[in-house]
Amino acid sequence: MPLISRQRIRNLLEREKTAFESAHPTSRKLAAESAPHFIAGVQMPWLVEWESPFTLFVDKAKGAQITDVDGNDYVDLCLGDTGAMFGHSPDVLVAAVRDAVDQGLTYMLPTEDGARIAAEFAKRTGLPRWSFTLTATDANRFAARIARAITGRPKILVFDGCYHGTHDETLARLDDGRVNPREGSVGPPVPLEQTTRVVEFNDLAALDEALSHGDVACVLAEPALTNCGMVLPDDDFHAGMREITRKHGVLLIIDETHTISSGPGGYTQAYGLEPDMFVLGKPIGGGIPAAVYGVSEDIANRFDALLDPEHPVVVGIGGTLSGNALSLRAVRTMLENVITEENFQYMFSIAERLEEGIRATIEKHNIPWHVSRMGARVEYGHTVKPRRTAREVEDTTDGELEQLLHLYCLNRGVMITPFHNMMLTSPSTTAEHVDLHNRIFADCVEELTNVAAEVA
Ligand SMILES: Cc1ncc(COP(=O)(O)O)c(C=O)c1O
């Protein structure tokens, strides 16, 4: 196997940073001018982690392409980290939203669209009862609240390396068996071990032990970890998790916000999972803020039983703008026209092409990397085999190498998701788009493994 030297990575990274800076004078100017007005100097504090020397400012985006304020066009394989995974501003959504804005935007009353959406999700997931929020974070929070209310237990369990939004109880890490706030988590309200148990993904024995204490209301899980790099479930993981959660009377919440890449009903539909609750946010409104959560008939009945029939009151779940008319019109339009089986079949075929191109380069150069795919979501990692836990991912992540690959792509017209090497294909992503990525990826690997160039 060729050795990729640290010096080579650093030299190329410096070159790419310089190229990035000279190609983005307007973004650089906007970043510098706006920094004093923002918390942490950027529009959203987490943007401090973006891979480029300063963040790009966007002019516009359509389909699978995005254009920055300096007029540079990119094939967008990041797609708003799933928020735009069905393409930017699909025509059908634009028309529906234009129509909806003339009819009033939020009323604190239901619309027919909400009823249609609930019925459609029931069909796709097998869970009959639904509600709405604006973000997946809120959907997860509300699902966990319902779980605590009906089980009378205080804690939730999450897997190490998870991300379920800014839901306080989930921002936890497992450090040598102890539950700690995850790195960068700002101002946790109480020590995390009071609210949360954490175990490694794919560790069914640890899950069984953690649930045996009888204090966990729900397990909140993605079908695969997608936010610390992609960690796929072992073959027996989901069946085992379901059996163990049932054994301990613990509710299972499946968060499909990213794994909706597996198909129109997410991984749940594609692989026959049987969650008690299902959460989906980000892409379902096509970029208009919207999220849903659904529950089984049993959970719904247990929740109903908590309400006083004479004087029903529900606080702690909801939100004034949740289920607003515009969001619901967007979700209904997306479900009926864009988040369809036909589009998924196309997205899968393009994602397969992306995966195969990356694999061909890895094999050609015999480098110790791998590529994984979950439907329309593709990710490569810098180990020979896919990792089975978040800890393994962390121990094998090479920040400089990742930054180089991201910048190398960006400087040549392809945007991949920052923080790890994740890419999505949309109904607008073409074979030419992914071939461009694969050529750039191959060129980068060629340069990285070119020992002669380093010596020179
Ligand atoms: C699996 C998962 N759940 C929930 C969220 C939170 O989504 P939002 O930031 O829209 O609330 C994310 C965000 O990345 C996510 O990846």
From TrEMBL:
InterPro entries: Aminotrans_3, PyrdxlP-dep_Trfase, PyrdxlP-dep_Trfase_major, PyrdxlP-dep_Trfase_small. It comes from Woeseia oceani. Pfam families: Aminotran_3. Keywords: Aminotransferase, Pyridoxal phosphate, Transferase. GO terms for molecular function: pyridoxal phosphate binding; transaminase activity. Its cofactor is pyridoxal 5'-phosphate. This is Aminotransferase. Belongs to the class-III pyridoxal-phosphate-dependent aminotransferase family. The keyword Transferase applies. It comes from the Bacteria.
